[in-house]
Write a structure and sequence with these properties.
Elements: E1 3-11, H1 23-26, E2 32-36, H2 44-56, E3 60-64, H3 82-102, E4 107-111, H4 114-120, H5 124-137, E5 142-146, H6 151-157, E6 161-167, H7 191-204, E7 206-208, E8 214-216, E9 221-225, H8 231-244, E10 247-249
Parallel strand pairs: 1-2, 1-9, 1-10, 2-3, 3-4, 4-5, 5-6, 6-9
Antiparallel strand pairs: 7-8
Length: about 250
């Protein structure tokens, strides 16, 4: 049986007429788009434009809610109650769903952004609040969460479909968490190293940590970042390598 893998990308993380990264070009290669909802980045016009571009290409549309932290791009920790986190996610997912509906599309999945994503991976109450918000807005949506993290069981407990997410361009710690961006070795810029990491995660269910340990992962969806240098080339080469390894690239079902 041919293996399959969803390829997702964070995008719409810009403002007004200014488009960050190369969203339009990367959309030609990915199968899912995680679109910023205005809290950590993005605004109504950018959300509208990005949903329209994704829908026109048949790319699955996802909401990418984050902390209300434009200055810190949503990468700074904020300590909110579970109720506040729930409201924040419902608000952002609902906003993107409105644009999707206006364009004859629908929101396929939700993936938290930045510090919200990383904190929920280890905080059961926060993970539960996010999962409950997704469930209550539309229980047919998929929740994307870090593979092996608390996000996956929090979603599955509510009967949501959950996709374990792995990263092509990030390094891992021994506990399966991502290396903090504050550390010099957090990102993988060499596309060949990234491809090697991806193949192993998909074919063996393992990723090598920065300390040389093999960490088990469930690779349902693979993230690349649209704001990194040469994002289009990165995506193009990864797609080609996956096809060469007989791995079908398609949206998570």
């Amino acid at each position: 049986m041919m293996r399959s893998l969803d390829l997702n990308c964070d995008m719409g993380e810009s403002f007004g007429a200014y488009q960050m990264g190369s969203d339009a070009e990367v959309l030609d290669y990915v199968t899912s788009a995680n679109i910023a909802c205005g809290f950590h980045a993005g605004d109504p016009s950018t959300m509208h434009r990005t949903v329209r571009m994704a829908h026109a290409r048949g790319v699955a549309i996802g909401a990418h809610p984050g902390f209300p932290d434009l200055q810190g791009f949503g990468r700074r920790a904020m300590h909110l109650s579970a109720a506040e986190a729930y409201d924040m996610v419902v608000y952002q997912v609902g906003a993107l769903a409105g644009f999707a509906q206006a364009l004859g599309a629908r929101v396929h999945h939700v993936k938290a952004h930045g510090a919200l994503y990383n904190m929920a991976a280890k905080d059961l109450a926060l993970a539960g609040a996010i999962a409950q918000a997704v469930h209550d807005v539309d229980r047919t949506m998929v929740l994307y969460g870090l593979a092996g993290s608390l996000m996956i069981p929090a979603a599955e407990k509510l009967g949501l479909r959950a996709a374990g997410e792995v990263f092509a361009d990030r390094t891992y710690q021994d506990d399966g968490s991502l290396t903090p961006r504050s550390q010099a070795n957090a990102m993988i810029d060499d596309v060949e190293l990234a491809i090697g990491q991806v193949r192993r995660m998909v074919e063996e269910g393992l990723v090598r940590s920065v300390n040389g340990h093999d960490v088990p992962v469930r690779a349902d969806t693979l993230c690349i970042h649209g704001d990194q240098p040469n994002a289009q080339l990165f995506a193009k080469k990864i797609v080609a390598a996956l096809k060469q390894s007989n791995i079908r690239v398609e949206a998570f079902r």
